[in-house]
Design brief:
This protein folds into 2 domains: 4-75 and 213-228, Pseudouridine synthase (2-Layer Sandwich), CATH 3.30.2350.10; 78-210, Pseudouridine synthase (2-Layer Sandwich), CATH 3.30.2350. The radius of gyration is 19 Å and the shape is elongated. The N and C termini lie close together (10 Å). It is built from 7 helices and 13 strands. Helices cover 27% and strands 32% of the residues. It is an alpha+beta fold. The strands form 3 sheets. Strands 1, 2, 3, 4, 7, 10, 11, 12 and 13 form a 9-stranded mixed β-sheet that branches. The protein has helices at residues 4-9, 23-38, 70-74, 110-118, 141-146, 185-195, 221-228, and strands at 12-17, 45-47, 56-63, 78-86, 88-89, 101-102, 122-126, 135-136, 139-140, 156-169, 172-179, 200-210, 213-214.
Length: 230
């Protein structure tokens, strides 16, 4: 059993973030229980890369002095699995917002899907979604979006090492992606649908790896609290 001093000295915790939890909620939950268990008034806990509430999977938490290593983990290659729904778009590029446009998928074949997927492998320019935590003029983009305000978003260079189509049951397309820091899978879903001369939005997402860390070795927040801090 780890002690409070161990957590203050620094630990790397692998958490499997549940659906609908924010990354911030996970951090708060773990921090509060560590403080409660060991009577520590202040303990640093941070995460290495946000997962949206509608995404699940690997969240790396660092405690104490190890919070200084967060940027190192954030910079590592990430792997995701998920599902893109073709034929419809949403303002957030995922299911956070309602469908705003629909398109035909009758022209889309398996062959076309595989061919278009190849075009997204390598270094590409990607525009982040307006519903994101990126700041512009000191304000987060998603706050501007919820106020109905539009703003110009610059593209950024990202690298997609693998974009594997794992199943096709139109309008659903399942995939596995290995990508660099800064990649928005929601934007990939939107751009993929557009390249297919249709529309697309992200309907499922799970982060499976960050660097050499795997979600297979992670535990849910409540499991961590019950098994590690009870």
């Amino acid at each position: 059993m780890l002690t409070g001093e161990n957590y203050k000295a620094g630990q790397v915790l692998l958490i499997d973030k549940p659906l609908h939890w924010t990354s911030f909620q996970v951090v708060n939950k773990i921090r509060w229980h560590i403080s409660l268990k060991f009577g520590i008034k202040k303990i640093k806990v941070g995460h290495a890369g946000t997962l949206d509430p509608l995404a699940t999977g690997l969240l790396i938490l660092c405690t104490g002095k190890f919070t200084k290593q967060i940027e190192t983990y954030q910079a590592q290659t990430k792997e995701y699995t998920g599902e893109i729904t073709l034929g419809a778009t949403t303002p957030s590029y995922d299911l956070e917002t309602e469908i705003n446009e629909t398109f035909s998928v009758e022209h889309i074949t398996d062959k076309l899907i595989y061919e278009i997927a190849k075009k997204f492998v390598g270094e590409i320019n990607q525009k982040p979604p307006i519903f994101s935590a990126i700041r512009k003029n000191g304000r987060k983009l998603y706050k501007l979006a919820r106020e109905g305000k539009t703003t110009e978003i610059k593209t950024r260079k990202i690298t997609i090492e693998v974009f594997e189509i794992t199943n096709i049951t139109l309008p659903k397309v399942s995939f596995r992606v290995v990508c660099s820091k800064g990649t928005y899978i929601r934007s990939l879903a939107f751009d993929f649908g557009k390249a297919l001369k249709s529309g697309g939005h992200l309907s499922k997402l799970r982060r499976t790896k960050i660097g050499n860390f795997s979600v297979e070795n992670a535990v849910a927040p409540l499991t961590f609290v019950e098994n590690k801090l009870s």
